[in-house]
Design a protein that fits this description.
Elements lengths: L17 H20 L9 H29 L4 E5 L3 E4 L2 H7 L3 H10 L4 H6 L4 E3 L3 H15 L4 E6 L7 E5 L2 E5 L12 E2 L5 E5 L2 E3 L11 E3 L2 E13 L6 E11 L1 H11 L1 H13 L15 H24 L8 H4 E6 L5 H13 L4 H11 E4 L10 E3 H7 L1 H21 L4 H7 L2 E2 L5 E3 H7 L3 E4 L2 H11 L1 H6 L4 E3 L6 H7 L2 H11 L20 H26 L8 E6 L8 H17 L8 E6 L7 H19 L7 E5 L5 H7 L5 E4 L11 H7 L3 E4 L5 H8 L5 E2 L4 H9 L4 H7 L1 H11 L12 H7 L8 H20 L1 H14 L5 H13 L16
Parallel strand pairs: 1-4, 1-13, 4-12, 13-14, 14-18, 18-19, 20-21, 20-23, 21-22, 23-24, 24-25
Antiparallel strand pairs: 2-3, 5-6, 7-11, 8-11, 9-10, 11-12, 15-17, 16-17
Helix pairs in contact: 1-2, 1-4, 6-33, 7-8, 9-11, 11-12, 11-14, 13-14, 14-15, 21-32, 22-23, 22-29, 22-31, 23-30, 28-29, 29-30
The structure holds ligand JNB.
């Protein structure tokens, strides 16, 4: 976005142009909010104060559009999509909302004319980090696309007081700090106390019969907590639609207090009150299952119960509506199994509270829900012990048993006498402690189940749910993930966006396939120069961030090689580390070795209890520090692990990346979405044939991607015949040397066995993710990158081709597919000029 020069206020100036008067209005709005709302003098206001005041000025415009949107949706009694997700990684909202309201340039020059530093102000916004990784960011991208495409939709989630922890490095190791993102107030949120919901837990089931001898169970002696909605508007781009993200905050209810008072006195009452407030306190920082955590189960049910009640309340607000048309108006998408208890809760409401016959209720439930699976990793498939369930949600457990009884009858009909089939299909795992399988529940309670990339969906059908696939033909389908180009190009890479607009016009952010129009410039020397100049400028900007956050000097002429994602064994950051060690060793053995200088950039948080992941972080940091300080290698190799990876940091890294590391063991990464963001910004992928990499390769072409390593079939075959990492260790002299080096105390002379967890996982631990098996192919692929980068024209062409050919990975395409094939949802445009500022 070109910034306009500050407009001097001058008495002699002619009548202001339209833009100037808009700016004038906006400036006075900011000033008014600063003084009237925040009670701040402009002289003493901090950047955060200015950020709040400006946000409130933008909010005025967004509220107009929001009211109009809700009015249109209600007037049309529109079918709506409700996205149920325990995670939303929204990042910062300021820039996005300015772009969506077309106020970015106006705000920029208004603040400039007020003597303020726009970047400082926008950087003072704390990320809304209510998620762990890909799944949470996907939810945020989907909200952006839903609004932009005018789909009537509402996101439901939890208003965690503490989002994902803030990460710091001490001695190279990860230290977690609480992320209390709400303390300075969130100018975007609206608290809707009038829509507070009650949620019950615990208690017992009374088995009673009505006058006609029908079983009418009653859930009694429950404890109640309250859910208070906090609404965040999500504004579409280039349209009038503003949808809502409704997040529930838990509060203790009077009930809760009173029950405790009667039985246990004051301290007990306060303790129980605290439990009420605790439910929405903190986001669980694992992207593996939280086995057995009662509070996590309570979060899931709290969220689902509030959201379903709210949907029902809204549905019945329209006098034309009844239970008969409920599933005509309501589509719920379950973001993984985390909200899968919704299937049971809606059954409970229909059967217990509405006296709906079971089969009728089950039909409504099936039509309402659809489920997205995001992982095949067995440890991430949610299971709850029946005992825990019985204590927290006793009636729900009964209903699960009833669903299961009927399910097993269907299985018996399909495969008479086959108990093995029943065992795998059952909602209850019977080996050892009885466990409830939430994935099986989500599959049987939904009319559609989808994977998030073609390969992932194929594996979902073949490996995870083959029985369900033949029991429910057509239920499984693919919806390849996408990302919003508004945040991941238009906002985060303004220079490249401007260049693209100059070449192909301004429509591409709403129709990303138009980027194909750039292909014809791929060999155009002038365009290549402009494209690569912008890449270099973005690298200069990232170099400043690296200097500020890591204290490391890096050259923008080096290859910026980026791996940014959660730290996980299967994502193989340690494979990257082994290759760095190999390069380092080659350089030490031959200091004049001709390599293109490289900067390896990492960003990753590890789950606080995941020791191996934390050990990998520490190893990268410690070894990286040694490499960075080693004058013998002439600065040819740098390693920068940026602390506290989050959405706003990703927005600074991605535009500056030359190389995108997507190196998971084939079959393990469901899709990946960082891979799409990086390719869109002209980074070349080095990757395995895993997740969406497969489809990125199809789009960009074999010449514009570096694919290496074992594919899914080869991984299966190798593991089938018994994989032994020692064979690779013995056979490859260099690999053996670097693994020994890693296992030695060379990098930590004062500390014995500092990296023994990583070292052990690679050898004695059996190397479950085949790091050693893929090492040589990975190293060879990196050699090809080195060669390709030396040919400036070739590299520029490849980078441009990546940007030009990844239009498929717009989340707009993904959302259109969901809307058409799963939700049966129609767009409903909201007309009128709601972007007008109040004068
Ligand atoms: C996740 C994720 C998975 C399970 C839990 C939490 N999955 C998070 C990612 C996949 C990516 C894919 C994105 C979007 O589809 O983020 O989803 O691109 O490949 O890894 C989880 C949390 C608690 C308990 C159990 C599971």
């Amino acid at each position: 976005m070109p910034s306009k020069p500050a407009v001097a206020k001058s008495a002699q100036s002619p009548a202001p142009a339209a833009q100037d008067s808009k700016e004038e209005i906006f400036r006075s709005l900011i000033q008014r909010h600063l003084v009237s709302t925040l009670a701040r003098h402009p002289e003493t206001a901090t950047p955060r104060d200015w950020w709040v005041a400006t946000s409130l000025a933008v909010r005025d415009t967004i509220h107009n559009r929001m009211i109009a949107t809700q009015t249109v949706h209600n007037q049309h009694n529109a079918r709506r999509l409700y996205y149920f997700s325990l995670e939303y990684l929204m990042g910062r909202l300021f820039g996005n909302n300015l772009i969506a309201t077309d106020l970015l340039e106006i705000a920029e020059s208004a603040l400039k004319s007020l003597g303020q530093d726009f970047d400082k102000i926008r950087n003072s916004e704390v990320d809304m980090g209510l998620g762990n990784g890909g799944l949470g960011r996907l939810a945020a991208c989907f909200l952006d696309s839903l609004a932009t495409l005018d789909y009537p939709a509402l996101g439901y989630g939890i208003y965690y007081e503490f989002g994902l922890f803030r990460q710091e490095f001490v001695n190279g190791g990860q230290i977690e700090h609480p992320d209390n993102w709400t303390i300075f107030g969130d100018p975007w949120e609206i608290v809707r106390a009038e829509y507070t919901q009650e949620v019950r837990f615990y208690g017992r089931v009374e088995n009673v019969f009505d006058d006609n001898g029908n079983y009418r169970p009653r859930w009694v002696d429950t404890k109640t907590i309250l859910g208070v909605p906090h609404d965040i508007p999500t504004a579409g781009y280039g349209t009038g639609t503003v949808n809502l993200l409704r997040l529930w905050a838990s509060k203790s209810s009077e009930d809760f207090d009173l029950a405790a008072f009667n039985s246990g006195g004051y301290v007990e009452a306060v303790r129980e009150k605290a439990i009420g407030e605790t439910v929405s306190k903190v986001l669980y920082p694992n992207d593996k299952t939280e086995t057995g955590k009662e509070l996590r189960l309570m979060q899931q049910y709290f969220f689902v119960a509030c959201s379903l009640r709210d949907i029902i309340r809204r549905h019945f607000r329209n006098k034309e509506n009844s239970w008969a048309n409920f599933s005509d108006k309501v589509a719920v998408q379950l973001n993984d199994t985390h909200p899968a208890i919704a299937v049971v809760e809606l059954m409970r409401i229909l059967v217990d509270e509405q006296n709906t016959p079971w089969d009728e209720a089950w039909a409504v439930v099936g039509k309402t829900f659809a489920y997205t699976n995001h992982t095949l990793l067995p440890e991430a498939l949610e299971k709850w012990s029946a005992g825990l369930f019985e204590r927290v949600l006793p009636r729900h457990l009964q209903i699960i048993y009833e669903i299961n009884t009927r399910l097993l009858k269907t299985v018996e009909t399909k495969w008479p006498g086959d108990n093995a089939k029943k065992r795998v299909c059952s909602l209850i795992e019977e080996s050892g402690q009885k466990m409830i399988r939430m994935a099986n529940l989500a599959v049987v309670g939904s009319h559609a189940v989808n994977g998030v990339a073609a390969l992932h969906t194929q594996l979902l059908k073949k490996d995870l749910f083959p029985e369900f696939d033949s029991l429910f033909p057509g239920k499984f389908q693919n919806k390849t993930n996408g990302i919003t180009p508004r945040r991941w190009l238009l906002k985060s890479n303004p220079k490249l966006s401007e260049l693209i607009t100059k070449k192909i016009g301004k429509d591409w952010p709403r129709n990303l396939d138009l980027l194909r129009g750039l292909e014809k410039f791929a060999d155009d020397a002038a365009f290549q120069k402009e494209f690569m100049t912008i890449k270099r400028e973005n690298k200069v900007a990232l170099a400043e961030v690296i200097k500020a956050d890591c204290g490391i000097d890096v050259s923008p002429d080096a290859i910026f090689d980026v791996q940014i994602k959660r730290l996980h064994e299967y994502k193989r950051q340690h494979l990257n580390l082994l290759h760095i060690l190999a390069l380092y060793r080659r350089l030490l053995q031959n200091p004049s070795l001709d390599v293109v200088p490289r900067v390896f950039v990492f960003g990753a948080k590890a789950a606080p209890g995941y020791d191996l992941a934390k050990n990998i972080i520490r190893a990268i940091n410690v070894i990286g520090a040694r490499i960075n300080a080693d004058s013998r290698i002439g600065g040819k190799l740098k390693v920068a692990f940026l602390p506290n990876y989050r959405v706003s940091l990703a927005e600074k890294i991605i535009p500056a990346a030359d190389v995108s590391e997507q190196i998971s063991t084939a079959g393990k990464e469901a899709s990946g979405t960082g891979n799409m963001k990086l390719a869109l910004n002209g980074a070349l992928t080095i990757g395995t044939l895993d997740g969406a990499n497969v489809e990125i390769k199809e789009e960009v072409g074999d010449d514009n991607i570096f694919i290496f390593g074992l594919n899914v079939d080869q991984v299966e075959e190798l593991q089938g015949k018994g994989y032994n990492p020692w064979n690779y260790y013995q056979a490859d002299e260099e690999l053996r040397a670097i693994i020994d080096w890693l296992g030695s105390d060379y990098f930590t002379p004062d500390e014995h066995g500092a990296f023994s967890l990583v070292h052990r996982s690679l050898l004695d631990g059996g190397d479950p993710y085949l790091v050693l098996a893929d090492f040589r192919a990975y190293s060879d692929a990196h050699a090809k990158i080195d060669a390709a980068y030396r040919d400036k024209k070739r590299w520029a062409r490849m980078a441009i081709m990546n940007t030009a050919r990844v239009g498929k990975f717009s989340s707009d395409r993904t959302i259109h597919e969901y809307a058409k094939q799963i939700w049966k949802l129609k767009a409903l445009p909201v007309s009128g000029n709601f972007t007008k500022l109040p004068s």
